[in-house]
DNA sequence: CCTGTCTTTGAATCTCCCG
DNA sequence: TCGGGAGATTCAAAGACAG
């Protein structure tokens, strides 16, 4: 009994995938995930229900907390039940992930320790725990605890050897040139972004801010990737995916949420290709071997290179190798050998004299690379 | 085979307790805790092994080696072994706690989910999870993940009905008259506070800053309370307890740590609280990186920016980078590149059109900063 | 004595491609 | 699947030291 609510938007539909992409699947997330092809999804973002214990306590008719929560068996039953639920959906999620896929799960102290343990037990590989620091948390009205001012996210790979997507350069330059840390500051979802129903009441109790998903998708997906959200709610994941030129698959049980999400996502203009392109990482740049600098006449055989402090020097040979005393080999190997280091990036280590300016040979590589990129464009 | 290393200091000895107070017990913490009277301790602070599972050495980009935690006490065969260890000491700990007692445990994503789940399973009652944001964390040298910039603490009561100590007013006072939040900012332990041996090497690989223990003991104990630390290490808990007029019981297996802790604590004058000013880090100006303007919807991907004279333009991409012709990178880098300058303050260089008015993007930063500061005040 | 520069270091599950 | 080599990668704080 699996329903599908298709959104008007379906970007890149000619991709020919069998995946029900840019779509909301209505019903239980485990059943729906098990119906999807294995190894087909790049990223999962999940905002699962928090611990059942709280709901149970609140819905008791007599409100007597005394027998309810103090009994060992009750508590054990409750956590055990939550664990069964958690392991079920995490198992189904792992099946649909590509080998190099990854998952994000958000939670609070009520449930995040169960989730984290389950991830580890199911052979996911934890990459980071991330703290969402709320700029405007709800105060602790009774003054009995610290203000609960954060939620925790876990970022985990499908397995230990998964080579997950991480747009390191993009994160770094968006953070004013220093590495993005594990503590993120965002306001909670309020104002115009918060979905309201006809009675001006919030549609969903825990709608997440788009800024949070924006950072997550920017950091750990590429344009065109498929992002699955098994607890879709009012569709924040889908909304941000559409804005960023990613595909989404939402799964949600509640019809009211599905309706709100469909309306919300339909109103969004998909992101333009150039605007959502990801900064090219160094590792993916056009490869320029050292020998081509010599071949193209940028550096003459016999030229002396040295390190920034001029402690070491080496001579360039016509075949693209370096010689320094007894050492010979690639720019990297000789750089490592003269320092007695395990390894060395010769492009940054070796310098030459350019009109009196001491510059790393990497500058010559950059100019050749720019030339090559221009030609191939 | 339980040894005791008594410190010279023993405050309030006339209290007539059978507890071995202001003392370090040398040996296994479970055995020692089981030898203590049940229901006798007000608070436990525990910094257990994190089970880091490091596989290979790590070098910084300058080829220097990172001094990793490779001690035997941090090695466990599997999560199952770690869980057995965790449940054993948490069970013993719960027995020695007074009915209204509480526990603090600190950890990282490697172990904290195991600890949190165990606490819940053993009928502790979670009160808060607290994030220690490190002012100066170690960077991620390989550029493969987010900088691991925090550790997590769990504060839990012995049971759901425990009426634990929480000095709400003191915390509020210490936090400029607003409730103390669940995210705390402290530098890591370095400099004069970090204990060094004869070879000028650190005595303990993971010594915690005293400021952290100051806040914990100030928040959740009263003067004269007994604080037990089953993984005493070099005795930060004991040192701070003595300064704050609390009693401590330390348990530690390694003789070298015990010796260092004894010497350290002996040198402290009890209760001389003013003498050791707690570093309450002043709130720095809220950092607003360029990427957050996009994440928070103040500037749309695809927007064109230009300089004041409109000689250059660039497009904002969703990942926080700018593109201008062949150049891509941060607002600062692209600003410098288009001008052929060495450097550039992108915040002042790049402008956008705000209702016909040409304003530097720095104005948006100012407004978002004001908003965030308002929210968090 | 102050100021600026250089050096050191910290709980870390820290690469990728090709043959 | 494994081994070897190319080549990519760091931030804040404190101390040492020079001027």
TrEMBL record, chains A, B:
Catalytic activity: a 2'-deoxyadenosine in DNA + S-adenosyl-L-methionine = an N(6)-methyl-2'-deoxyadenosine in DNA + S-adenosyl-L-homocysteine + H(+)
Annotated transmembrane regions: none
Span of domain DNA methylase N-4/N-6: 41-262
Domain RAMA residues, every copy: 273-372
Xref: InterPro entries: DNA_methylase_N4/N6 (IPR002941), DNA_methylase_N6_adenine_CS (IPR002052), RAMA (IPR040843), RM_Methyltransferase (IPR001091), SAM-dependent_MTases_sf (IPR029063)
Pfam families assigned to the protein according to its UniProt record, in alphabetical order: N6_N4_Mtase (PF01555), RAMA (PF18755)
One GO CC term on file: cytoplasm
One GO term (biological process): methylation
Keyword Methyltransferase recorded: yes
Keyword field: DNA replication, DNA-binding, Methyltransferase, S-adenosyl-L-methionine, Transferase
One MF term in the entry's GO annotations: N-methyltransferase activity
PROSITE patterns according to UniProt: N6_MTASE
Keyword S-adenosyl-L-methionine: yes
Family to which this protein belongs: Belongs to the N(4)/N(6)-methyltransferase family.
Protein known as: Methyltransferase
């Amino acid at each position: 009994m699996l329903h599908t609510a298709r959104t008007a938007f379906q970007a890149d539909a000619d991709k020919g995938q069998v995946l029900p992409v840019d779509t909301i699947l209505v019903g239980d997330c485990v059943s729906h995930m098990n119906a999807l092809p294995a190894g087909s999804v790049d990223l999962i973002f999940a905002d699962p229900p928090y611990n059942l214990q709280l709901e149970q306590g609140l819905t008791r008719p007599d409100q007597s907390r005394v027998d309810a929560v103090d009994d060992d068996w009750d508590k054990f039953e409750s956590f055990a039940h939550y664990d069964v639920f958690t392991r079920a959906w995490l198992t189904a999620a792992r099946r649909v992930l590509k080998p190099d896929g990854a998952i994000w799960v958000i939670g609070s102290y009520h449930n995040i320790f169960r989730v984290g343990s389950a991830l580890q037990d199911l052979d996911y590989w934890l990459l980071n725990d991330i703290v969402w620091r709320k700029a405007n948390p709800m105060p602790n009205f009774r003054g009995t605890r610290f203000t609960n001012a954060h939620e925790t996210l876990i970022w985990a790979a499908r397995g230990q050897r998964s080579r997950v997507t991480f747009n390191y350069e993009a994160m770094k330059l968006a953070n004013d040139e220093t590495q993005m840390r594990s503590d993120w500051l965002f306001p909670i979802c309020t104002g115009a972004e918060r979905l309201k129903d006809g009675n001006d009441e919030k549609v969903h109790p825990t709608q997440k801010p788009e800024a949070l998903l924006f950072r997550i998708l920017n950091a750990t997906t590429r344009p065109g990737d498929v992002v699955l959200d098994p607890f879709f709610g009012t569709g924040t994941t889908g909304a941000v995916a559409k804005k960023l030129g990613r595909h989404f698959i939402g799964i949600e049980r509640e019809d009211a949420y599905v309706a709100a999400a469909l309306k919300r996502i339909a109103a969004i203009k998909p992101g333009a290709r150039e605007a959502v392109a990801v900064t090219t990482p160094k590792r993916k740049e056009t490869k320029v071997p050292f020998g081509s600098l010599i071949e193209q006449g940028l550096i003459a055989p016999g030229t002396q290179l040295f390190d920034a402090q001029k402690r070491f020097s080496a001579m360039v040979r016509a075949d693209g190798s370096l010689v320094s005393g007894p050492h010979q080999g690639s720019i990297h190997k000789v750089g490592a050998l003269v320092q007695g280091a395990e390894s060395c990036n010769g492009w940054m280590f070796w310098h030459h004299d350019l009109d009196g300016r001491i510059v790393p040979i990497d500058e010559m590589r950059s100019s050749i690379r720019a030339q090559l990129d221009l030609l191939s464009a």
